Amino acid sequence: MLDYKLSKDQINFFHTFGFILFKGLFLENIADIINSFNEVFKLKKNKQKFNLEDVDRLCIPQFIDSHNDLASLIDDERIIGIGESILGKNFNYMGSDGNYYNSNTSWHSDGWASNILHIKLAFYLDHLKHDKGCLKVLPGSHYINDKYSNGLDISFTKKNSYLNKLGADIPGISIETEPGDLICFNHNLKHSSYGGGSKRRMFTINLSQTYPEENLSDLKNYINQGARFWIDRAYGDIMLNTASKKRMKYLTQVLENEGELKSHSMLARKKMKKPANG
Ligand SMILES: O=C(O)CCC(=O)C(=O)O
Q1: Tens-digit pLDDT string for the chain (278 aa)
Q2: Which of 12, 192, 28, 23 is nearest to 110 (CA)?
Q3: CB burial of residue 245 (10 Å; 0-12, 13-18, 19+)
Q4: What is the distance between the alpha carbons of residues 223 and 232, in angstroms, rounded to a whole number?
Q5: What's the rounded Cα separation, in Å, for the pair 13 and 60?
Q6: Which end of the chain is less congested by CB atoms within 10 angstroms, N or C?
Q7: Is 119 within 8 Å of 208 (Cβ atoms)?
Q8: pTM higher than the cut 0.85
Q9: Does the beta carbon of 175 lie inside 6 Å of ligand 1?
Q10: Ligand 1: does its nearest atom lie under 6 Å from the Cβ of 72?
Q11: What CATH number has the domain spanning 8-210+235-253?
């Protein structure tokens, strides 16, 4: 069996800068992955009857969960190797989304938690260049409580009035990608994308460390945020129905703590708050 454990240097790079790019890691599978991506979007499009050109961003939650081949990425040695190397054995699969972007994404963090490490694995399915839609990051900005990143947080929450700069002019690192590359980044890391053409395609797989007993209420809060998509379970049916014993290892802690999600979603539906997925 191939060994996809990360080297010490790769792990050090990730912890120092908050991201790491794996060039061509999925190159041999990318044609199939793109077909699967298109199939999920086609199904959604046929069901909801919309034009992709008419939306700034379309986000499908439980994305890999809704396709047999994409769900099996959780069993893939490359994903497991990255997860185990950075997060430890028994990491959690924390959900996925599939996205069509017709727009810029302004600078933000996906989380701002210090005690539990969350990572995002981002598959971009188009050729993306500097200032033409590729992901931009601010290396080192994932260290919360650090003077540098605390300063950034103030400036970013003040919508750049502190820096008096447009988001596109903030000097980040551009991570240019081709289909088949994989970007892994810490949820705390500040990231953005500017200048992309229409229909940038991307999907994510989110992973976290196992939550210790004393932090289970934080895990529940995280899971309950799924209510904004009106979902009753943390994982989609295909992800669960096709799960081997090996895959279940990465789903168990979330399944044990998803109990309140359904009532949160019911509440969101009652309030008739439109789901966040476009
Ligand atoms: O590619 C983009 O527009 C940014 C993606 C992003 O912000 C995210 O997945 O959290």
Answers
A1: 447 899 999 999 999 999 999 999 999 999 999 999 999 999 988 877 767 667 778 999 999 999 999 999 999 999 999 999 999 999 999 999 999 998 899 999 998 777 899 999 999 999 999 999 999 999 999 998 889 888 888 787 777 678 888 889 999 999 999 999 999 999 999 999 999 877 799 999 999 999 999 999 999 999 999 999 999 999 999 999 999 999 999 999 999 999 999 999 999 988 875 666 54
A2: 192
A3: exposed
A4: 10
A5: 31
A6: N
A7: yes
A8: yes
A9: no
A10: no
A11: 2.60.120.620
Residue with tokens 């990231």: 191
Q: Is 204 in the pocket of ligand 1 (CB under 6 A)?
A: yes
Which protein residue has the closest C-alpha to ligand 1 atom 10?
Answer: 110
**Residue 241 burial (CB count, 10 A):** 10
Sequence ranges of the domains in the chain: 8-210+235-253
Of 259, 149, 250, nearest to 208 by C-alpha is 250
